[in-house]
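Chapter review. Work through the record for Spore coat protein before attempting the end-of-chapter questions.
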Amino acid sequence: MQALTSKELAYINDMLGGEDLLQKVCVAAMTTANQSEVQQFLHHAVSEHQRRHSDLLRLLEQHESVAH
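Structure tokens for Spore coat protein:
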């Protein structure tokens, strides 16, 4: 695996923040949603944002092992 550039690392860091924010917004919306279909959709969205966040963290951990 090739080491990531500083620009790529900054982009991944921004994406981590975005996924975290989207997850929090979906959780907040889920608690105020009245329709079960909307709550289910938001629950799925939260799961997807958690998965993407985990994937990005894993990528950074792999980069750390390559960089050292």
